Amino acid sequence: MKKYSKETQVGLFVLVGFLAIAYMSIKLGNVHLFSDSDYAITAKFNDVTGLKVNAPVQMYGVEMGFVEKIGIDMASGMSVVTLRIRKDVQLTDDTIASVKTSGLIGDKYIKISRGGGEPIQAGAVLRDTESSIDLEELISKYVFGGV
To answer: pTM value?
Structure first.
């Protein structure tokens, strides 16, 4: 039986350790490398307070994508959210995207309500959107008699 030197054994052990760390970082970090199993669409909102990149996109309570990017369109004064949707999910031109909260004070996510119009292609812009509800603003209106 062939014996390896200690340096070779340590080198192999370190290499396997680095590969394991890289794999776990990609899996746990929700990194989507070289993925062609989804397509991008854009939704414009008045307010996306609390929404974060990699937040889930759900339809009928099932996760079907994630938030890829959040930005601002200065010309229209709206938030622009880029969504990555699985290719097996076909959305229509009258789809409604809403910013929702899981639980009372949970994380924000995008809820998709599918319509019955014409199918959309990758790169389409969803115009029918519902912004997030600001709980602090509602409570302050109630406390100070603004309701």
So the answer is: 0.71
